Amino acid sequence: MVSETVQVSGHILDSLILPKILDEIIDLDGTFEILEIAVGKRKTDPSTARLKVSATSEQKLQAILKRLARLGATPLTLHEVQLVRARQDGVFPTDFYSTTNLPTAVRYQGRWRSVENIEMDCGIVIDPRTARAWCVPVTHVRKGNLVACGTTGVRVTPLERSRHKDVFQFMGSAVSSEKPKGLLIDGVAGAMRSAKQAGRKILVVGGPAIVHTGGGRYLERLIEVKYVDVLFGGNGLAVHDIESALFGTSLGVSLDRRGPVRDTHDHHMRAINTIRACGGIRQAVRQGVLTKGIMHACVRHRIPFVLAGSIRDDGPLPDVITDVLKAQDEMRRHLKGVGLALMIGSTLHAIATGNLLQATVKTICVDINPAVVTKLADRGTFQGIGIVSDAASFLRELCHALKLSPR
Fold first, then answer.
1. H or E element that contains 198
2. Which of 112, 151, 301, 329 allows an S-S link to 66, with CB 3.0 to 4.6 Å?
3. Does CATH place domain 167-401 in 3.40.50.10690?
4. What number of helices (H) and strands (E) belong to the chain?
């Protein structure tokens, strides 16, 4: 048998971190011995546990330690991070450390150094001149970069249960159509107020269902009163919104009459064509062609937006970024300072954004389909809560909770 002593600290009992560590050891055919445990006496006091982890081979032990590292358990014996130079652009070394979205540090030159811009499914690069460590997508790694490999010298800080009674503590990541939505939405409104008071940005990721269900005016109102600091979406959200503003329809369906109207099926293409003739959304607003709607409100109130394209897009609008790697980088640029993310009626863009968010960003996913909310969590965005609701109902109730009346 080979063994290693690991230590974990924090609110490891009430956040169930220690039980998860023990489960991982057993699931991977290892054994453990709890050498020492000190339990905090007050709510704010951390607890500490020291365990001897054993396995039948060094390979199995390293596999266990790799899983435990993601829960914040680090070897008692401090080792420097293992660094290997990338041999070509866009390719990590074989044994590169694949990041989570949890706060991460690497031990380099005798000190723990925080990894900047942490994001899941990336690598860690270290500059030997400055000792700076930062998170790098595989497409951005360059030949000669020093890349962290293995789990030695890497420390992850797991999320702990909130010490305050709020909607995130109450719901966790549970998803159900039978949860008390009024209480949840009041909690979301409170979280939005707290984010603004703390100087943190609020991100909204929206899908075309917002417009199609009649929720556009509520999102427009949130933008007007600065409860939205940045908007992510796709061609569909913008086209539906602009079609609604220009023609009063969404995919040919009248938003006033709640039904199809004759000869309106091509309104979305006419909306695209109108904006293309103007040169873009901002130009259409300046020229007085686009006078209302979500995109108009973003331009008028100087709220940045990122529209990421997909293969199914009609047009697309000139503002849509059709290169997905460029769209990712633009999204990353606007995520700095975001404290709360609200994802409404979007599957692809919600999951894409969730992959870019740090675990410390409070995340709310709203969709009429429970599978969307579950899939977001399954992809690793476990810090979020899910609300099963149609977009318009949620936004209407959210505005009510924030004491906002639509124009």
1. none
2. 151
3. yes
4. 14, 20
